[in-house]
Amino acid sequence: MCPLGLIRNGRNMNYYDDKSLMKSLEDIIVENIRKQIDQIDCHTKVAICLGEGQNYQVLNKLNQKHHFFDTVLKLAHPRYIMQYKQKFIQTYIEKYIDCCQIAVKLCNEQ
């Protein structure tokens, strides 16, 4: 979502960790999404968000405001899975496959 790498106190941070920063970055994020849609020439019927928490909440809110995609699906972020849920990786693989199948079905609808 955010094309910038952010650091605070020498550590990586997420764009949504600071509400005032998020407000400052919103226009950059919106422009980045629009550029990706235009340059990749992708379908806008469905988007898959990697991150089920705040990343999804931000994308969903921006999508409601700017109407980038008809539907936004969410999946657990791969880093989260590998760090905290690795013993359930097969379940997450199945969720990824199911989500992709739903996305394909949505893209093929008239």
UniProtKB/TrEMBL annotation:
<dbReference type="InterPro" id="IPR036895">
    <property type="entry name" value="Uracil-DNA_glycosylase-like_sf"/>
</dbReference>
<dbReference type="Pfam" id="PF03167">
    <property type="entry name" value="UDG"/>
</dbReference>
<protein>
    <recommendedName>
        <fullName>Uracil-DNA glycosylase-like domain-containing protein</fullName>
    </recommendedName>
</protein>
<feature type="domain" description="Uracil-DNA glycosylase-like">
    <location>
        <begin position="24"/>
        <end position="97"/>
    </location>
</feature>
<dbReference type="InterPro" id="IPR005122">
    <property type="entry name" value="Uracil-DNA_glycosylase-like"/>
</dbReference>
<dbReference type="GO" id="GO:0019104">
    <property type="term" value="F:DNA N-glycosylase activity"/>
</dbReference>
